[in-house]
TrEMBL record:
<dbReference type="InterPro" id="IPR055170">
    <property type="entry name" value="GFO_IDH_MocA-like_dom"/>
</dbReference>
<dbReference type="InterPro" id="IPR036291">
    <property type="entry name" value="NAD(P)-bd_dom_sf"/>
</dbReference>
<feature type="domain" description="GFO/IDH/MocA-like oxidoreductase">
    <location>
        <begin position="137"/>
        <end position="247"/>
    </location>
</feature>
<protein>
    <submittedName>
        <fullName>Putative dehydrogenase</fullName>
    </submittedName>
</protein>
<feature type="domain" description="Gfo/Idh/MocA-like oxidoreductase N-terminal">
    <location>
        <begin position="3"/>
        <end position="116"/>
    </location>
</feature>
<dbReference type="InterPro" id="IPR000683">
    <property type="entry name" value="Gfo/Idh/MocA-like_OxRdtase_N"/>
</dbReference>
<dbReference type="Pfam" id="PF22725">
    <property type="entry name" value="GFO_IDH_MocA_C3"/>
</dbReference>
<dbReference type="Pfam" id="PF01408">
    <property type="entry name" value="GFO_IDH_MocA"/>
</dbReference>
<dbReference type="GO" id="GO:0000166">
    <property type="term" value="F:nucleotide binding"/>
</dbReference>
């Protein structure tokens, strides 16, 4: 039984706690927040005891793993402390502010023999096996269009002058980091790093990207990635090959998958298993990785590749975070 603590009290942590109830391999035992009242109020209904000191959480002998769902900019510092204390770490996306931070975490996890995983939920649910199983049937892939565009509920607060963490560059936030990663992680999992990255962003007054579009070159095809925090788009994402195309209604949590056959001009709607929440599948996978940390390596590589692409995209568009290394712009 993997005994989990959480960092953060947002709605996504509530989903984590609810999923943990459905997974026999884990138990949710502790909730961390800098505010005791908030930690108690969040953890109490789940039977999780409150923590307000990260060092005490790291040193607790009855906690095996920690789910980090704090702002992106805090992930590295918190994960370093926990990994060095021998805790397995499941970290919400984006896993780090840049590729350099992620490489640092990988080294620490390796040296301490613990599991480290970014919680990109789509690639751990049964749906993903359907995607992988149909890739060969598509023939030579010629085009990939992935999009994640949803207007943030907090955008109205931004417009009213109240800037929350998910709209702060100092928190390593923005459309690319918060939503583009949903597209990039599966893309990197399937195809690896592109040979060329071209990026364009529309930025808000504080320098954060409100929406970003990427054009990514591969030997046989070009991929586009579009993400936005200020506008919604219900268009399906597609992987198009010479023989067939695979479409999904939402890249982060597909409810529908469809295969279009190019020669017969017919389609097939795939049946998806949605009997359990995505996070439950992540927790089961992570429990196995805690026993054998090397199982996480393909996912760790996809995270590194995605962060590498995002670093280059931000370099091109001038979106900078405090933890970014000094770089010289070139054209």
């Amino acid at each position: 039984m993997l005994r989990f603590a959480s960092i953060g009290t947002s709605s996504i942590v509530e989903l984590f706690a609810e999923a943990a109830r459905q997974v026999d391999e884990v138990s949710y035992v502790a909730a961390y927040s800098r505010d005791l009242t908030r930690a108690t109020a969040f953890g109490g209904p789940h039977g999780a005891r409150p923590f307000t000191d990260l060092g005490a959480l790291a040193d607790a002998q009855d906690i095996d793993a920690v789910y980090i769902a704090s702002p992106n900019a805090l992930h590295h510092e918190q994960a370093v402390r926990l990994l060095r204390a021998g805790k397995h770490v499941l970290v919400e996306k984006s896993a780090a502010a840049n590729a350099g931070e992620w490489l640092d975490l990988l080294r620490i996890a390796e040296s301490n023999g613990v599991a480290l995983l970014e919680s990109v939920r789509s690639v751990h649910e049964p749906m993903w096996r359907s995607v992988e199983s149909y890739m060969e049937s598509l023939g030579t892939v010629r085009q990939v269009n992935l999009q994640m565009c949803q207007r943030s509920r907090r955008y109205d607060n931004y417009l009213a002058g109240k800037v929350e963490n998910i709209f702060k560059p100092e928190m390593a936030a923005g459309a690319l980091m918060d939503l583009g990663v949903y597209c990039l992680h599966p893309l990197m999992t399937l195809f690896g790093l592109p040979s060329r990255v071209r990026a364009s962003s529309v930025k808000l007054a504080n320098g954060i990207d409100a929406n970003t579009t990427l054009l990514l070159d591969y030997p046989a095809f070009t991929a586009t990635v579009a993400c936005s925090k200020v506008s919604a788009n219900a268009a399906w994402s597609v992987i198009a090959g010479e023989d067939a195309s695979l479409e999904m209604d939402a890249v982060d949590n597909p409810q529908a998958l469809r295969v279009w056959w190019a020669h017969s001009k017919s389609h097939e709607d795939l049946v998806l298993d949605k009997s359990q929440p995505q996070q439950a599948h992540v927790l089961r996978a992570f429990a196995r990785m805690a026993e054998q940390p090397s199982l996480a390596r393909p996912h760790q590589q996809a995270t590194l590749d995605a962060l590498t692409v995002m670093d280059e995209a931000r370099r091109q568009t001038g979106v900078r975070f405090p933890s970014d290394p000094d770089i010289t712009e070139h054209h």
